Amino acid sequence: MTQRGRRRHRRGRKPSKVLLGFGVLAALTAIGVLSAGIWVLSVAAEAPPIEDLRPVDRGTSSEVFAADGTRLGYIQSDESRTPIKFDQVPDDLAEATIAIEDERFYEHGGIDLSAIARAAVENVEAGKVVQGGSTITQQLVRNLYITDPERNLERKIREAALAEELEDAHSKNWILGQYLNTASYGTIDGRTSVGVEAASQTYFNKSADELKLTESALLAGLPQSPSRFNPFINPTGAVERRNEVLQKMAEQGYISEGAADRASQAGLGLERGYRYETIREPYFFDYVSQDLISRYGVATVRRGGLKVYTTIQPALQNAAKDAIVNHGYTSDPAAAVVTVDPANGHIVAMASSGTYAQSNFNLAAQGHRQPGSAMKAYVLTTAIRQGVDPDATTYESKQLNLNLPEYGEWDVSTAEGSECNCPMTIREATQASDNTVFAQMDLDLGPENVRDTAYDMGIETTLDAVPAEGIGGLRIGVTPLEMANGYATLASGGIRNTPTAITNVEFPNGDSDEPKQGDRERVFSDGVAWEVTDILKGVVSGGTGTAANIGCPQAGKTGTTDDYTDAWFVGYTPKLSTAVWVGHPNARATLGTSAFGGTLAAPIWHDYMLTAKGDFCDDFPQPEDPAEYQRFYGKYANSGGASSDPYDPDSYSTDTTTPTTPTDTDTDTGTDTGGAYAPGLQDGADPGQ
Q: What is the CATH number of the domain that holds 618?
């Protein structure tokens, strides 16, 4: 072959190699595409059927209501969310969302391939991600079913497969409504608004169904980048994004160009809303919240969409706060008022000085303070339970200097040396709040019996069963709530209730729960309660509590602690039991030498209860089971007797019974450095008023 021929031959072979190369490339591409397709299908097949998936519970903010049905506030959480029905969503908001997020929403079947291609082109041209291709349905799948936060191709494939299933299972309006209830619209002050209702309340202080076109457009533009377009943080960016939404709405025929132009000229019109943050009666609200959490757990309470109905009565709450402020107790010294309904244990008022911003410590429910002579009601009740006749039994009113084998030395006196050095009946000693008589009586009755009576009546704080407790010397102290509930047992005729702040809890599925607070339990007869009440009436009508007299049947007891650091009046009518405490909130410092329960706490009680009682002015009912007395032989008593008719003190029985003496106690008396076991007039013991 000639050289020219060989050249022709070589030139003729080159095209065949090129074609072969293209053929191989095409084959490899086809294999790659086929393999990719098979991989995509296999990943999509791994997505479980949507009916087998449980949607992520985005939660709903729980609401708390007062007894009159008004809202006290929402349980605090890091998210605010109140789902609404689709027919509550304004058309402008639905259309704005479709226009900016998914313009072919009503045309595709869950995946919009053209949107994916368009987004890819724009992102390549921009050199960064400027547009997403996910449909509203895909975003809803992400909100409801995708828990893996990793952004990868496999997740996107599974997301697309589930989106198609979701479209087959639900209507477009259902999908759009669910999306509007689960999308995030930005975080303000650490709380994220989830759903359009929470967003509307946060940004515009109104419900979603009240939104205007400009407001709807602003919200519709937030989910793509809530932080970037947050109008409180970046108002300029928010305006630009809102106007972009308006332009899209015009382009897609939802509004006219003129309407879009006019709306674009408007300001943002923001009005910061605090619906999810505003709490009325925060101290009571916290009390309720902790009760709920102990019952249902944190997650359910904060995000379970509960509707909680409580016992607090706003009218009584306002009256209590007014009485506190009107007597000058705005911060320090402070005052606290608690009222319990004796019929059921409902806490109908819980108020105190100061503001929640100053301190979140609840003086009414958490403040353990020394009660002074207000503890004498438990000693008195113990005596009547043991059959001690209050009008026939006498003790010598005198300063005491005792050396007790079990308790050590005990010096007891009454305020300002007011002992009369004469015999006093129990009734007289109660009205005069004589410490020396009650100290002797506590020893005769048995300190452990006094402790048990206090527990029976509703005191929950640990007591040590030492004599000093009978005149107010407690190691820990008691709260106003405990004292109000303890005296409520007398008002209810000897039936103890567990104090409750919640009447009903409704769950989103329609179930309801009336939290069990404990059965009403009779702890002593109505005759015992009636006799104690009759004696405590005298404290108000002619004893140390006259400043509390409201002109209707009532009973109560004053309390003043050693060094005049705490002043109390705890009293009740047949309908309401109220404890009032006055003192320094952060220290046991004196209120002044004229600071008695009858001069500081009783006037607050008086002013508050004048309003709280309303028109009710009935007397306590006569007992069905009158108290019975027996002859009492106490070591310290001067005399004891029994009346055949406990309501006729002139008719005494000569019947004798086994003497009542103090029983031994197993109280530790050795090493308490706080002096809890020193039975004398220790810190907290009442000077006698």
A: 3.40.710.10
Furthest C-alpha separation in the chain: 158
Distance of CA 319 to the CA centre of its chain: 21
Alpha helices (H) along 496-652: 526-542, 602-612
Residue 592 and residue 457: Cα distance in Å, rounded? 32
Specify whether 198 is located in the same domain as 325: no
Q: Is the Cα dihedral 377, 382, 383, 384 positive or negative? A: positive
Q: Is residue 44 part of a domain?
A: no
Would residue 677 count as lying in a domain? no
The amino acid that residue 601 corresponds to is: A
Task: Say yes or no: 226 and 368 in one domain.
Answer: no
**Per-residue model confidence as pLDDT tens digits over 66-100:** 999 999 999 988 889 999 999 999 999 999 999 99
Q: Domain with 146 in it: what CATH number?
A: 1.10.3810.10
CA pair distance 584, 685, nearest whole angstrom: 17
Task: Compute the average pLDDT of residues 21-27.
Answer: 50
Note whether 498 and 365 are same-domain residues. yes
Determine the Cα–Cα distance for residues 111 and 11; give it in Å rounded to an integer. 51
Whole-Å CA distances, 235 to 187, 201, 240, 669: 15, 18, 9, 70
> Are 367 and 255 in the same domain?
no
Count of residues for the chain? Answer: 689
> For residues 189 and 228, is the Cβ–Cβ distance under 8 A?
no
Q: Cβ distance 580 to 556 under 8 Å?
A: no
Residue 5: band (very low, low, confident or very high) from pLDDT cuts 50, 70, 90: very low
**For residue 200, what is the enclosing H or E element?**
helix 196-204
- Report the alpha-carbon distance of residue 517 to residue 514 in Å, rounded: 9
Torsions phi, psi of 594, nearest 5?
-105, 15
Residue 612 has a CB neighbour count (10 Å cut-off) of 25
The closest of 557, 535, 491 to 649, measured between CA atoms, is: 535
Cis amide bond preceding 333, omega within 30: yes
pLDDT confidence of residue 10: 40
> In 294-436, which ranges are E strands?
307-310, 334-340, 347-352, 394-396, 400-404, 408-412, 423-425
The most confident of the ranges 42-56, 137-151, 414-428, 462-476 is: 462-476
Q: Is beta strand 191-194 parallel, antiparallel or unpaired with respect to 79-80?
A: parallel
Q: Which residue type sits at 397? A: S
Task: Give me the sign of the Cα torsion angle 585, 582, 428, 530.
Answer: negative
Counted domains in the chain: 2
Residue 282 lies in a domain: no
Residue 297 in domain: no
Same-domain check for residues 478 and 590: yes
Q: How far, in Å, CA of 636 to CA of 272, rounded?
A: 70
Model's pTM, two decimal places? 0.79
Determine the Cα–Cα distance for residues 236 and 224; give it in Å rounded to an integer: 16
Task: Please indicate, yes or no, whether residues 449 and 546 belong to a single structural domain of this protein.
Answer: yes
Residue 197 sits in the same domain as residue 329: no
Residue 185, beta-bridge partner list: none
CA 584 to chain centre: 25
Domain of 155 in residue numbering reads as 80-264
Last residue of a domain, which of 244, 264, 284?
264
β partners of residue 582: 335, 567
Q: Give the model confidence (pLDDT) of 160-198 as tens digits.
A: 888 888 899 899 999 999 999 999 999 998 889 999 999
What is the C-alpha separation between 265 and 262, in angstroms, rounded? 5
Q: What is the pLDDT of residues 640-668, one digit of tens each?
A: 544 433 333 343 333 333 333 333 322 22
Q: How far apart are CA 347 and CA 611, in angstroms?
A: 17
> How far apart, in whole angstroms, are the C-alpha atoms of residue 438 and residue 418?
14
Query: What token pair was written down for 108?
Result: 């595709």
